[in-house]
Amino acid sequence: MEIVAFGVQADEKPLIEQAFRDHHEVRSLDVFLNDDTAPIAAGHEIVCTSVNCDLGASVLRALAAGGTRMVAQRSTGFNNIDLDVAADLGLTVARVSYYSPYSVAEFAWTLAMAVNRRIVRASTRTRDFDFRLDGLMGRDLHGRTAGVLGTGKIGEAFARIAHGFGMKLLGWDVAENPACMQLGMKYVPKERLLAESDLISLHVPLMPETSRLIDAAALKTMKDDAILVNSSRGGLIDTAALVAELREGRFTGVGLDVYEAEAGLFFLDKSLQAIEDDTLARLVTFPNVLVTSHQAYYTRDAVGQIVDTTVRNVLDYTAGRRSENVLVPRS
């Protein structure tokens, strides 16, 4: 059987092809699945997708009409998939429910430290042989407060690093994580966490209840010199409201690995095109903002685990087995 994989990055391709080598042929494409590219999947029983693929109703119907019966998503998040429509069409949908939490947690800390210590500005200056320190002053994080919104595996890994820095820990989640509490984390309402934290990191999934969790009111609650990091999902932050606060000179730094309108932009080369997204164009102009292109998960360890799990999901489907990774079971 030939599987068609959409949205495959150059570094991913050899890992995917090696993992499937002894099981199925795989056709790796760098284009993302959407209404325009869905016809490519015609005749393929299984398609493999990334988080920035569009699996809305119209795309799923096109896949089903072309003979697709299974969608294997190479990510934990699945907010890009209309699961109700998939179920109605009889499509099996599986995801990767777990991969290295350290990849994302460590990258979140990379963003935090980069904006705190002005690393990008310093690097740009030294390339021009400008070795002044003006405007590069950061601050110690030891003894300050880290607020972790979402204390699952990734949030816990982030909290462990914060604990290593000697920071006080505040947490917010629907359920308390005993491992975080052993680190000294105190669970508090979201409003208190935002008001008291010097560093705030987001590690919650995107769902209707968490959409724009950090809205205009939440941003107003935060300290003027706070650091905000989002390595989870772009839709957790109201970006227009964030830009408005940044225009007022607020926040020591903002590190974003995700953006609420990143589909059609992230993972693509847009360097020779005019960016029509005015909010993103304004966001990247602020000297205290660092935006990266959804790469927090992108380590050999994590991607290897993602690919291996995706192969297992496909093999489970062909064998008629069901695992905890299945979002919509085989009909």
UniProtKB/TrEMBL annotation:
Q: Which domain of life is it from?
A: Bacteria
Keywords linked to the UniProt accession: NAD, Oxidoreductase
Q: Which residues form a coiled coil?
A: none
Listed SUPFAM superfamilies: Formate/glycerate dehydrogenase catalytic domain-like (SSF52283), NAD(P)-binding Rossmann-fold domains (SSF51735)
Q: Where does the D-isomer specific 2-hydroxyacid dehydrogenase catalytic domain start and stop, copy by copy?
A: 8-327
UniProt domain D-isomer specific 2-hydroxyacid dehydrogenase NAD-binding: residue ranges: 110-296
Q: Which family does it belong to?
A: Belongs to the D-isomer specific 2-hydroxyacid dehydrogenase family.
| PANTHER family, sorted | 2-HYDROXYACID DEHYDROGENASE HOMOLOG 1-RELATED
Q: What is this protein called?
A: 2-hydroxyacid dehydrogenase
